Amino acid sequence: MTAAKVVNTSGKRKTSVARATVKKGSGRIWINKVPLEIHQPQLARFKIMEPVNIAGAKAEKLDIDVNVRGGGIMGQASAVRTAIAKGIVQFLEDEELETIYRQYDRSLMVSDARRSMPKKPLGRGARKMRQKSYR
């Protein structure tokens, strides 16, 4: 008896981390145990659907379950789409699909490494400093 193929991938954007599990199924996508069809807001849903729409018929028979934590709504959506795209490519082992994703938008295959700067001493944040008084 052979075990069913399951692929685990992750995507990051700002402070959001998404972990996706891709397996053979009926084409369902769940984000934090909520079906993608009712995921709100609509703009985030469209962003998340991009890798599935680009893959087309190749991704129709894949079940994708995503857990995402941290960050805001659109940061989470970007992390989810990266995790989904990586998962589809790894599951299908399709180099051609990976090049299509990279040409469309590099962030589909590469997690965003940018982070906020640390706060500096004598300042109110990373860049803003306290005013100097000359009187």
Description:
Helix 1 (42-55) packs parallel to helix 2 (73-92). Strands 1-2-5-3-4 form a five-stranded mixed sheet. It is built from three helices and five strands, in the order ββββαβαα. The chain has helices spanning 42-55, 73-92, 95-104, and strands at 6-13, 16-24, 29-31, 34-35, 62-69. The mean pLDDT is 89. The N and C termini lie far apart (83 Å). Strand 1 (6-13) and strand 2 (16-24) form a beta hairpin. It is an alpha+beta fold and 135 residues long.
What is the topological layout?
Blueprint: E1 6-13, E2 16-24, E3 29-31, E4 34-35, H1 42-55, E5 62-69, H2 73-92, H3 95-104
Parallel strand pairs: 3-5
Antiparallel strand pairs: 1-2, 2-5, 3-4
Helix pairs in contact: 1-2
Find the structural class using helix and strand composition. Answer: alpha+beta
**Principal-axis shape:** elongated
Number of helices: 3
How many DSSP-defined strands?
A: 5
Mean pLDDT: 89
Alpha carbon gap, first and last residue:
83 Å
Strand and helix order? EEEEHEHH
Strand content: 15-25%
Secondary structure: helix percent: 25-40%
Biggest β-sheet description? 5 strands, mixed
* Cα-based radius of gyration, to the nearest Å: 19 Å
Unreliable spans are none
What's a concise summary of this model?
The protein is 33% helix and 22% strand. The protein is of the alpha+beta class.
